[in-house]
Amino acid sequence: MTGEELLREMKVRGLSQAALARAVEIDVTKINKVVKNKRQLRISELNRINALFDRIDAGIVNDDSNARVANLPFAPNAFGRQDLHLSGRTIPVYGQVIGGLDGQFLFNGTQVAEVVCLPTLEKVPGAYAVFVSGESMAPRFFPGETVYVHPNYPPRRGSDVVVQLKPEVEGDPPEGFIKKFVSRNGDFLVLEQYNPPQTIRIPADRVVSVHVIMGTSG
């Protein structure tokens, strides 16, 4: 999320920098630097901010002056032992997704592991996880991390997503990648990656699914 994107999302919800900083327990000076594109958010910080935005949009948090991290679906140290302990459900891991389009993960339906899911995914049918390989989405995602995926949550601009594409050869399993969602229409799915920075346009008829990443652990 760029500084301009964060500032726009704050304005939509009527949040000042101070109110946002209080709600997600990030120093207001860091929020100010992020808005000015002088610093980047950590993954855990971005997850807390997105969770707060989602709750405000849903009408769960109506008074930003009273918003606290305790109201968020993730704890401050997201995806730590406390979070995993809260959920008794396990979800399948379907292998590795590649950070960049220089590699691919084949969604062949083979379960390679099983992990305890995030509390926010405990009641979500079809929730799954994948292991990350490749560094083209660093510093957001690094090799070896586990990403937790919601198959029904609608992506919005700036969402991290797992994208499944139709294979080049008919009959092969779909290819999968992690990217940042920009937009989607009848012609193209538009994505971004970090290393090297680039915008990627994929023909709409190649897209099987776009699933939102709800969190990560590594």
Q: Topology of this structure?
A:
Layout: H1 3-13, H2 17-24, H3 28-35, H4 43-57, H5 81-86, E1 90-98, E2 105-106, E3 113-116, E4 128-133, E5 146-150, E6 160-165, E7 175-184, E8 188-193, E9 198-203, E10 207-217
Parallel strand pairs: 1-4
Antiparallel strand pairs: 1-3, 2-7, 4-5, 5-10, 6-7, 6-10, 7-8, 8-9
Any overview of this molecule?
- Strands 1, 2, 3, 4, 5, 6, 7, 8, 9 and 10 form a 10-stranded mixed sheet that branches.
- The chain has 218 residues and is of the alpha+beta class.
- The protein has 5 helices and 10 strands; from the N terminus they run αααααββββββββββ.
- About 14% of the residues have low confidence.
| Count of domain modules | 2
CATH third-level topology of the largest domain: Umud Fragment, subunit A
- Average pLDDT: 76
Q: What structural class do the secondary elements suggest?
A: alpha+beta
Percent of residues in β-strands: 25-35%
- CATH homologous superfamily descriptor of the largest domain: Umud Fragment, subunit A
- Helix-strand topology string: HHHHHEEEEEEEEEE
The geometry reads as: globular
CATH class group of the largest domain:
Mainly Beta
User: Which spans have pLDDT < 50 for at least 5 consecutive residues?
Assistant: 61-86, 99-103
Descriptors for this entry?
434 Repressor (Amino-terminal Domain); ten-stranded mixed sheet; Umud Fragment, subunit A; alpha+beta; 10 strands; 218 residues
Give a quick precis of the structure.
This protein has 218 residues and is α+β, with helices and mostly antiparallel strands. It is built from five helices and ten strands, in the order αααααββββββββββ. Strands 1, 2, 3, 4, 5, 6, 7, 8, 9 and 10 form a ten-stranded mixed sheet that branches.
